[in-house]
Write a structure and sequence with these properties.
There is one protein chain. This protein is of the alpha+beta class and 399 residues long. The protein has 2 domains: 178 residues, no CATH class; 205 residues, no CATH class. The protein is built from 10 helices and 14 strands. A 7-stranded antiparallel beta sheet has the order 2-6-7-1-5-4-3. The protein has a 5-stranded mixed beta sheet with strand order 9-8-10-11-14. It has a two-stranded antiparallel sheet with strand order 12-13. Helix 5 runs antiparallel to helix 6 and helix 6 crosses helix 9. It starts with a strand and ends with a strand. The model has no long low-confidence stretch (mean pLDDT 89). Bound molecules: zinc ion. The site of zinc ion has 8 residues, from loops.
């Protein structure tokens, strides 16, 4: 099975410039190939193979106008042309919409690296062709520092799949796939029901202790406050800008240096918040998996439905339910644990786990489950997690 790993890069200024150049040429080559396919298609021609396009591209590089492309590693543009052909082919086969051109505004900078030539050591990654000189000291430009040491395995036997380099508006990242063998370990006989919620992130049926809602911690609250303040500042700056002079129709005010600075700060805060949330979800899902259940049951949450409710939408988005499920899905698959998805219409919180009585008019503010039939008193979410564990109607999403 292929495991994906993504690690942040710490390039120096020279390397940063090069990375943007590479991404720019990848976009250029992609658009060029797409335009060629389009032109050909509109005049009644059939699909042009990426081989033919690449030959034409090589000729293009010999002309004066496009000789700047020669300073870019060949593999970058080669793969971009391939990608354009693939997306055009998918449209041909009615598998995808008509491919769009990549623009600076819509698409994050991104390019491909050759999977044989890319190299890693414990601290750095080597890209191809950042330096045009073969001299040893100039070759150092090719080695970019990694933000996490020893995360990506290296050595003679390691094969990398589809390495990509991308920029998210703030940082550069390298992502690769690695073939890894699954370790199916001895699983325990029991399963775990997981009830996801707003008050706490998750309640598991095997331990009566919830995973807290990370958004209620002091650190996240502080960051959210900071974000709000920065957003207010920037919108005030925009207002001032709009009032400063009369703009003609279609004319947009040009961003001032201060606005750009502030927007970068906002991006950074967003990034921090995201990191904290993402990290917490990873810790939680890994923690559940580590207990080696034979199966995990979760409710099929109607996330898009909840997003329609204004009050819920923000909370749900912050809780990252979708990400939680995505992680559970791939982590259980790796360990050979079955992931059971239970219909969202199953009344997990309205049913008494002890006697099966269904209480129709359950009040959401009631944190405690008090059964009118058998009289048992139990935490409401814990009761729900037990019901999810024992529910016999489910869909298995892996294996
Ligand atoms: Zn009962």
């Amino acid at each position: 099975m292929i495991k994906g790993i993504k690690v942040m890069l710490i390039p120096n200024n020279k390397q940063k410039t090069k990375l943007f150049q590479f991404a720019g040429s990848a976009r250029f080559a992609y658009n060029w190939a797409l335009a060629k396919e389009q032109e050909n298609y509109n005049s009644g021609g059939k699909f042009i193979s990426d081989n033919d396009l690449r030959k034409e591209f090589t000729q293009l590089k010999k002309t004066d106008e496009f000789k700047w492309l020669n300073s870019i590693s060949n593999n970058v543009t080669k793969q971009a042309i391939k990608d354009a052909c693939i997306s055009f082919k998918r449209f041909f086969k009615h598998q995808a919409k008509y491919p769009r051109f990549k623009t600076r505004k819509r698409n994050n900078p991104k390019f491909y690296q050759d999977n044989i030539k890319i190299q890693f050591n414990s601290t750095h990654v080597k890209f191809e062709g950042l330096s045009s000189s073969k001299k040893q000291n100039k070759q150092q430009l090719n080695w970019i520092r990694l933000a996490e040491y020893n995360r990506i395995p290296f050595g003679k036997d390691v094969k990398y799949i589809n390495p990509r380099v991308s920029f998210d508006g703030l940082n550069w990242w390298v992502s690769i796939g690695i073939e890894s063998e699954d370790s199916i370990s001895n699983l325990s006989n029991s399963g775990i029901g997981v009830d996801l919620g707003i008050k706490d992130l998750a309640i598991c049926s095997d331990i009566n202790k919830p995973y807290k809602n990370i958004n209620k911690t002091k650190r996240v609250k502080q960051l959210k406050k900071k974000l709000k303040r920065q957003q207010r500042q920037v919108s005030r700056k925009y207002d001032n800008l709009k009032e400063s002079k009369v703009f003609e129709k279609g004319e947009k005010p040009k961003k001032t240096k201060n606005i750009i600075k502030l927007e970068n700060k906002i991006r950074k805060t967003h990034h921090k918040l995201n990191g904290i949330r993402q990290n917490y979800i990873h810790q939680t899902t890994t923690n559940i998996i580590k207990r080696k259940p034979s199966f995990i049951s979760i409710e099929d949450l109607n996330v898009s439905g909840m997003m329609k409710n204004k009050h819920l939408a923000k909370v749900v988005q912050e809780q990252c339910f979708y990400e939680f499920r995505r992680q559970l899905e791939y982590k259980t698959t790796r360990k050979g644990i079955k992931l059971r998805i239970i219909s969202r219409f199953y009344p997990s919180s309205k049913t008494c786990h002890k006697c099966g009585y269904i209480k129709k008019d359950l009040n959401l503010s009631n944190r405690e489950w008090v059964c009118p039939k058998c009289g048992c008193i139990i935490d409401r979410d814990f009761n729900a997690s037990l019901n999810l564990r024992d529910c016999k109607e489910y869909k298995i999403v892996n294996g």
